[in-house]
Each structure stands twice: as structure tokens, then as C-alpha cells.
Please model this.
Amino acid sequence: MEKAEIGLIGLGTMGSSLALNIAEKGHRIAVFNRTVSRVDTFKAEAGPLADRIVPCHSLAELAEAIRPPRPVIIMVVAGKPVDEQIAALREMLSAGDIVIDAGNANFHDTVRRFNELEGSGLAFIGMGVSGGKEGARHGPSIMAGGTEESWRRVENVLTAISAKFKGEPCAAWLGPDGAGHFVKTIHNSIEYADMQMIAEIYGILRDGLGMGAKEIAPIFAGWTEGRLNSYLIEIAARVLGADDAKTGEPVVDIILDRAGQKGTGKWSVIEAQQLGIPATAIEAAVAARVLSSMKGERLAAENAYGRNVSRISEPKKALLKHLELGLLAGKIAAYAQGFAVMAGASKPFGWNLPLPTIARIWRAGCIIRSQMLDQMAEAFGKDAATTNLLMAPTFVRMMNEAHPSLRRIVAVAAEAGLPVPALSSALAYFDAYRQGRGTSNLIQAQRDFFGAHGFERIDTPGAHHGPWGHDQ
Ligand code: 6PG
Model:
């Protein structure tokens, strides 16, 4: 039988979609799944693509079915299952074969796996895949890390299945070992911030203006025509417009306000802290999800304090304009933080992450795809020294136009008693970032007062101590 070009293990939602995508692009693919019967049903359901699918009932069969050097994609739950799968697969593969982990792995695991496999002659690619089920099936954004040589060997298949932005594939090699999974992790954390800010705007409309889901949906839909054009705004409009089959009510109104998370947001925040890069809007978004999950405690606190949310009196038309522009400003600050974390990670991890390429491959296919990413790609591409988006001339102009609206909505929300943690963190970050003289002179003085830590003077170099009148 004709050998397959590539293999895939794990026919869950994402794995099945990726396998069909690969087959559809003309590549013969061998598939294996832990629940073995799934491989046959998968082929049976593949319709006209079935001819290019080789169902394998064991890992040995899978290895046998692929033409060496064999690339094998693993799409299983991140964590221990990946290690178990790699351990089992190692027995079947030989030097030169490439294992590709396409799950949402923690990049530290990816670095470890890369090093472990390198010693055995197997290549390892840690590959972030974004776009959910639809993306995987019809064109995801693909962020790969590993050796450039291994990437070159699978590039044709991976670029063929990726999303395209004006004909350009949204798939790229981003650097050694964990680079791809790190970038995917940051992608997800930006996704957290983007979603949290959209939810905060929804909160202002719902609780501050008393609008129903059906009234809010067209507002978001209208924003997709402007500079907020993005997948997340588009789906916000769609979900707000959808009805619950059981009650006939807007479905968002019957969904419990407790958000899940699988870890990528948290990992990003930990990494940002380790690297010493402020990512406050992202941190606020991750914390907001945690707080959302504490439903019982929140209800008890509401009992203790009362809800105390007041209606916003600002004229609706003017407020809507501020909400649109303020969300844009908040979003720019959050993206600036995400990119700054990637810029900061480049050196210590030895990745040299290409920010313009990352912005380019996020323009289509992934969950945070948006019109603005094209402008980000251009901004980073124009000046390699730009590591903070807030300093790119296009974004300086946009922020100058939009930050007064962000300020307005944060103020209005605070007065009304509405929480906007990500938007207000974004505003505070922006204000602190552009403050040439801040207030940490006082912190330095206090540190010196109680701990003799010393401080720098504005007029004389070196370390100094203050006239505190006690032994420091
Ligand atoms: C994507 C998504 C995808 C998934 C996340 C959600 O890029 O396609 O980010 O990876 O939706 O795992 O993460 P949480 O469950 O943590 O929200």
C-alpha cells in the first residue's frame, strides 16, 4: 500500500479536524487513536477524503504506514498524556523521524521534551495551533518551534493546511525548542485579555445602561465594521443574539457566570513576572476568571455589601462612542503587553522571536485574528527596535485618539460600581508607561529609611542615603 506522508495520533475534536484538513490538501495521512475503534469510524465518516486516510490499529502499524523520515503529529490532552504518548512512540520511531506536539503544551515541557528527544536522534517540534475546531479543519494559525531543519521538512504540509491572509500562509517557524508553544501561550493570554475587556464592555451595557442581550448584539455587530473588526467581537455579537432552545431566552442569560481556564493564561502571567515585564491587563484578565469561578463567595459578598450598581446617566450615543474607542485603547495596551513579554523572553530563552512574523501569522486563522493585527505586523516590521507597540508611530496616533475614551469609560464604570479590571489595568499601565517622572522616588526613600537600601539621585551618580536621622 502507498505510504502516508504524515501521521497523527489523537482523533479528538482538534485531531480529527487537523487530519481531515491535511487529507483535503492532498496529503496521505496515517491516523491512530487510543480508543482504537475510533480510527475506523473516522475513516468511515471522512467521505471523499477517506482514500487519503490510513487507519492504524496500533502505534507499530502507524510507524509502518508512514514513509521515513516520519513526521507524527500528537494531538492529545496537554501534560502527562503527551509524555506517555511520546514514550510509547519512541519505541516505534527511528533517527530522523519528527514528533510534533500540536497541543497547548507548557513551553517548559516542550523544551524538556525537545532536549530528551534530541539525544535519541528524533526531532521534536512544539507547535501551537489556534483557531478551534473550525480553524483546525479549514485553516488554523500555526506557531512552530524546534530546529529550522525539522520545520523545513514539514513546512509544505503545515503551510498548506494553515489559514491564509491575502494568500500568505499563517504558519511559521518561530525559533528553537519551546518558541512555538511559548508564542501560543502568549496568544492565549492576549485572548484572555481581549475576551475580558469585551465582557467588561458588555457589563457596562447590561448593568450600567440596562440593555438586554438582543440590544447589545447589534452594537457589537456594528463595531465589526470599524477598527474593532475581529473574530472575538464578531462572535460576541453572534452569541448575544442567540436564543436558548429550552427557555426561548437569550442563551447568554442562562449561562452561569463562571469562566473556565486550562492554564495558558496563568503560565503567561507567571512568565511575565519571571521576566520582569509588566503585563497587567493580562494579569487582570486571568484574575478575573479566577474571581468569576468563586461564585459562592461572590454571592455571599453581595449579601454582605449589597450590589450597589447604579445606572449610568451619560447620554447613550456618546457613551457608545467612548465604549468603542475605549475598547480599542484597552486592546492596544493588552497587545502591547503580550508582545513586550515575547520580546523580553527572546534573549533569556535564546529564541529571537520574530514579532512581525508573529503578528502576521495571527492575522487569520487564530482566535485573536483582527484587522488591527495587520497594523501591528506593519508596525513591528517597519522598525525592528520596536518592542512595545505603544511606541510605534501608528499606535501612538491611535492611543492619542482613543485613550480619553478609555479614561471616560473606566471613570464612568467606577462611579457606577461596575468592575472593569482589565480595562482599568490597561489605562493605568498606559498612564504609568508614559509618565516620565513617576512616584517611586518615595518608595526608594522609604526603602532606604527602613533598610538602608540606598537610592540614586537625579543630580549625582552613585548610591546615596537619606538624612533620616537614625542609624540606617
Ligand atoms: C485557540 C484557543 C484554544 C482554546 C484554549 C482556551 O487558540 O484556538 O486559544 O487554544 O480555546 O485552550 O483556553 P481556556 O480553556 O484556558 O480558556
Observations:
- The longest strand covers residues 123-130.
